[in-house]
């Protein structure tokens, strides 16, 4: 939308959060609060987005996209003071300015557009997005005159008993005529309960000048929920998670129990994949169709093909092909490529390793820094001994090899195509194709030893 500038306030520490992290950097469904707001704003196609930073500004700037401008508010003297810092940077050809707060992450692009349309279609100098709340505690209250126009916003702390009974609240989202914003911002004083320059005092200033202030009412109180405390963070997180799950279900994903399923905003999942309870899917994870995932699975930053079954397992930073059965109780650590049709069974840990198609590691094994070919069988209790206390080495097991139970493969070592390793062996040298390697002490049997000792 040409001619629109946007200001997002994100300078506050967020004292009520009781945290060293700036409030807007707290993550909700895998994304910083400020970036939820900025991404929603991006949907408007504004000519300019300015974020006002302050407390720990370097860490806030670090997470912002490059095409977002920032201005610095050295001291956090209130929301009005924050906007004051941004006003000189507003493009001169901007007709309208949208102002919103970085601690209101659930507001959608559609609602913002509706506010802007409402503002432009009336003859308003300023329009406030409002909503009726059952429990308006902590929010600024909206005062209207008989004609229904807004005459003032009173902060909760400054409000009298009658005003506190008003349920219509200020969402903190406003659309301004650019020139009136610049004029009004210069009028603010800090003579209130908190000794701050309130942006909301602009309303009275403009009203006194005879400017009409519009109140665009939203019917969704949840969307404008501000995050001031860790409890509110959890409420917003739950709402955002449910939104993500609904979006996925609308796209054809099956989710048995939304109450115990957590899927971050950045995850994609294709149709008819079924997510069972107690499952967390995070980061840039991409999941194809027709998988069954869960119960009790955590997947971070993985790609997963189709037709896999994964239960009670943890998978990180790895690629999983199609048609694998993983778990229960498998741990796929970063850097793995499990190419397809693989069986990874219980109490198996795999790290920085490649398993080509059809290979199996069914029970109680550690595969670290391994290159495992096609159709390999890794028996129960096999350890890829990859670390000598100083350096890590790789183990190669070529196509069709069979590694018996309780074998140690001391890296670097190569088990060539179709070789067999006898159970219980500790292998330190390469094994040739089609050979059997066996490394065991001879079994000695002492006849009647028990009787001679008088034990039975
Ligand atoms: C504010 C509104 C209140 C509204 C509520 C909606 C004012 C005076 N009050 O109250 O009417 O109902 O939001 O959620 O505007 N910030 C700065 N610099 C500052 C102070 C704040 O950048 O000096 C930023 C904060 O980082 C935050 C946002 O402005 O993202 C809002 O500040 P906050 O202190 O949370 O305001 P509320 O008390 O919630
Ligand atoms: Ca707030």
Question: What's this entry about, in short?
Answer:
It contains 9 helices and 41 strands. It is an alpha/beta fold and 456 residues long.
Radius of gyration, in Å, reads 31 Å
Q: Major sheet: order of its strands? A: 12-15-18-21-24-27-30-33-36-39-41
Q: Percent of residues in helical segments?
A: 10-25%
User: Mean pLDDT, rounded to whole units?
Assistant: 97
Q: Could you explain the architecture of this structure?
A:
With 456 residues, this protein is of the alpha/beta class. It has 2 domains: 4-224, Spore Coat Polysaccharide Biosynthesis Protein SpsA, Chain A (Alpha-Beta Complex), CATH 3.90.550.10; 313-437, UDP N-Acetylglucosamine Acyltransferase, domain 1. It is built from 9 helices and 41 strands. Strand 2 (27-28) and strand 3 form a beta hairpin. The termini are far apart. Bound molecules: uridine-diphosphate-N-acetylglucosamine and calcium ion. Uridine-diphosphate-N-acetylglucosamine binds next to strand 1, helix 3 and strand 10.
């Amino acid at each position: 939308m040409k001619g629109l500038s946007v200001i997002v306030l994100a300078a506050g520490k967020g004292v009520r959060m009781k945290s060293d992290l700036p409030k807007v950097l707290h993550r909700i469904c895998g994304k910083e609060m400020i970036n939820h707001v900025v991404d929603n704003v991006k949907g408007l196609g504004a000519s300019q987005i300015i974020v006002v930073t302050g407390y720990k500004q370097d860490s806030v700037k670090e997470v912002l996209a490059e095409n977002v401008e920032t201005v610095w508010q050295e001291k956090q003297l209130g929301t009005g003071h924050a906007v004051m810092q941004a006003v000189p940077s507003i493009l001169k050809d901007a007709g309208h300015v949208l102002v919103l707060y970085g601690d209101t992450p659930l507001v959608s692009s559609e609602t913002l557009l509706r506010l802007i349309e409402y503002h432009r279609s009336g003859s308003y100098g300023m329009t406030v997005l409002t909503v009726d709340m059952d429990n308006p505690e902590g929010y600024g209250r909206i005062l209207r005159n008989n004609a229904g126009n807004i005459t003032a916003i009173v902060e909760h702390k400054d409000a009298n008993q009658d005003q506190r009974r008003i349920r219509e609240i200020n969402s903190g989202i406003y659309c301004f005529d650019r020139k009136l914003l610049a004029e009004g911002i210069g009028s603010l004083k800090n003579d209130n309960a908190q000794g701050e320059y309130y942006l909301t005092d602009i309303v009275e200033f403009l009203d006194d000048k005879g400017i009409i202030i519009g109140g665009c009412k939203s019917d969704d109180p949840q969307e404008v929920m501000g995050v001031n405390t860790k409890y509110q963070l959890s409420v917003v997180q739950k709402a955002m998670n449910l939104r993500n799950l609904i979006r996925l279900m609308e796209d054809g994903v099956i989710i048995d129990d939304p109450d115990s399923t957590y899927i971050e905003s950045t995850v994609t999942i294709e149709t008819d994949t079924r997510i069972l309870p107690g499952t967390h899917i995070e980061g840039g994870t991409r999941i194809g169709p027709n998988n069954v995932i869960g119960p009790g699975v955590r997947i971070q930053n993985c790609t997963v093909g189709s037709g896999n079954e994964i239960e009670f397992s943890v998978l990180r930073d790895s690629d999983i092909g199609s048609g694998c059965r993983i778990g229960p109780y498998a741990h796929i650590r970063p850097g793995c490529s499990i190419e397809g049709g693989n069986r990874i069974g219980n109490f198996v840990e795999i790290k920085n390793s490649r398993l080509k198609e059809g290979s199996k590691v069914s029970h109680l094994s550690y595969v670290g820094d391994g290159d495992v070919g096609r159709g390999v069988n890794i028996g129960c209790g096999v350890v890829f001994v990859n670390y000598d206390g100083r350096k890590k080495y790789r183990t190669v097991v070529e196509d069709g090899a069979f590694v018996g139970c309780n074998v140690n493969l001391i890296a670097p070592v190569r088990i060539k195509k179709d070789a067999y390793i006898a159970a219980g062996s500790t292998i330190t040298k390469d094994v040739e194709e089609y050979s059997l390697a066996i490394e065991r002490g001879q079994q000695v049997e002492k006849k009647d030893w028990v009787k001679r000792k008088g034990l039975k």
